[in-house]
Structures are given as C-alpha cells and as structure tokens.
C-alpha cells in the first residue's frame, strides 16, 4: 500500500499581508498529479487544513475544490483537524463523506473507529486523531493530568484496544501534536498548556506508520514517525525548508520504504542584509529579485523611504528590519524632568534614527503630544505639578 502524507495546508493564511490562495491552489494541483503519477492508494492530511477556525469564504471554496478532487482520485483520503481548525466545521457531514471514500476524523469520540483498507497483504487500519485540547479531554476522558501527552496516551489506549480486537492488522495513525524531537518555526501557533506541550514519541510505539502534523518543517523522529511539514513556507524562519509530502510504502510486515516528494515553490524566500545602497546595487542580491524578501538594513542612520526604494528592485519585499552596527547603537538616558513630551519625543527620534526630525515631523509629533493632553492647548511638562 502506498500512502501520501501531507499536513498543515493553512488555507486562507496570508504571508506578511500577501494572499497565498493562488500558491495553495498550485499545491493542490501538485497533490492530485502526484496521486496519479505515484499510484497512491491513501492520502492522509494530518490537521490544520485551514489557518483559522472561521476561515474566509475563498479558503472554504479552495478546500471544497481540493476535497472534491481528492474524492474523485484513485486514493482513499483521511483528514483530521488541527489546532487551527474548527473541528465541528471541518467535520460537518463527516458520515456522509465516508460513503465517498473521503473520511473526516474530527470527533475525539471516534478515534478508535478506523478506516479499513485492504491490499494484497490484508487489512490496514487507519486511525485519525484530531487535535485534542487537554482541558476539554481531561474532563471528557477523566484524564489523570492536564497535558497533551495524557490526552494522546488515552487516545492511543483506545486505538490499541481496537487493534487487538481486530487481530493486530497493520496500522496507520494521524495525529496533530508537538512530538519530542521536532524542530519548531515562527509560523506555528503555540499549543503549550501550562508549559506541558511536548509528547513523547513512545506514545505511538507499535504503530506501523504515524503521520504527524503541527510542525511546519519535515522531520523524521523515527523511520515510522514523521512530520511532513507545511506545503508552503509561512515565515522567513522556513526559508531553508524543503517543502513537500512523504511517500510511504507498506508491505506485509509494515513499513517498507519512504521518499520525499518535493512540492512546487511558486515564490522562494530570501533574507538579505546590508546597507540600503548595497542592497540596491550589488549583483550578489540579483537572485532575490523575484523572491519574497526580508531585508535587514545595516545603515548607521535609517534611510528615508527605505521600503519604497527597496521595492524598486525587489517588488516582493514584505519585511524590513534595521540593525545598525553595534558601535552605532547608542542608547542614552534622557533627562525628562522639566522637559515637555514634545522635546523628549524629538530626542528619542534623533537617538534612534541618528538625525533630528524634520520640521514637518516635529509638527506632527507636537500635534500627537497635544492630542494626548487633558488640555490640548497645554504641552505637558514631565515632572511638573
């Protein structure tokens, strides 16, 4: 049996304010093509289909199209909900979808109801564990502690009981969690509960393949326990990630092989550092001209209209930071007693930027200070009574 493992689509997510739906649609096209070219029997999607619990309508439309195309493909499909999804919304009509060979597993009460598939070697039982909120599950399942490990351990106890009753067929489990050993990135939502967010890989011992979601980088914890990562980069911390899906083969004894199918990269990410003039003229930055760009400026004085000037060469610049040389990062203490808010604000601008505010900027700061005063005719003097 051949399995394609993907997760963390985050449909509807933006990248620094830029729409990503076109890029996400390209991944769906790639997924469908891979199912055919690699003769995939089962597709598993391990949570975070959407980026938020109430997704925008265009994200729902893309999910609807993706699900319909998957249901019409040669593969059976199992999808679970992640911490970004609304389990109830994603799982709507789950029992009806079962009839189409498309299986939504978003209800914790159904973790021990497998999707049963067969190949020339016999039965494969596929269990979908939705994201389990520890506070909710502690009460529902009378857990001994408030943690992700307690919730997942309880789910796996139910799954092992069902497997035993079926004569221990080969097994696949989907789960959405932070399993020990996985590297995090900036675009993942923290799921810590009182600091207890990590789950030991030993929780899944004995399962032939565990398809994990939540972390956005691909990672192999053991040959049988893997993260596929997100299909697209959703933060600049993922600039060096290779995105895609795991292709897993099961034979009569269980896991027989694995390979990684790289996803298309509609627009790469680039992090560039230097003075503004250097970034605008140096040939070594030419490869970033078609990329999403995060620029770090090292000018000792902040250049005026830096982003607008960067966009002339890098039209997809979306993030800008300032990091002047250490010797130029002077942070001095300001005298505030007996001085007006306006004077202190002007000193702050000069200190941070390395040059004084213009007359127009000074007037704007004065207006802002006066707008915050009880009497707009009075410029507040710090320390005055």
Assign the CATH topology of the largest domain.
Answer: Purple Acid Phosphatase, chain A, domain 2
Low-confidence stretches: none
The CATH architecture of the largest domain can be named as 4-Layer Sandwich
Into how many domains do the coordinates divide? Answer: 3
Labels describing this entry:
single chain, 385 residues, alpha/beta, Purple Acid Phosphatase, chain A, domain 2, Barnase, Chain D, 6-stranded mixed beta sheet, 10 helices, 19 strands, elongated
Describe the protein's architecture and organization:
This protein has 385 residues and is an alpha/beta fold. The model has no long low-confidence stretch (mean pLDDT 90). Strands 6-5-4-1-15-16 form a six-stranded mixed beta sheet. Strands 7-8-9-12-14-13 form a six-stranded mixed beta sheet, covered by helices on one side. It has a three-stranded parallel beta sheet with strand order 17-18-19. It has helices at residues 21-37, 57-71, 87-90, 94-98, 134-141, 148-165, 276-281, 306-313, 341-353, 359-372; strands at residues 2-6, 14-15, 18-19, 42-46, 76-80, 102-105, 115-119, 122-128, 170-176, 178-179, 198-199, 209-213, 219-222, 225-227, 244-251, 254-262, 269-274, 292-297, 317-322. It starts with a strand and ends in a 13-residue tail after the last helix. The protein is elongated. It has three domains: 2-262, 4-Layer Sandwich (Purple Acid Phosphatase, chain A, domain 2), CATH 3.60.21.10; 268-329, 2-Layer Sandwich (Barnase, Chain D); 332-385, no CATH class. α1 (21-37) runs parallel beside α2 (57-71), α5 (134-141) crosses α6 (148-165) and α9 packs across α10. It contains ten helices and 19 strands.
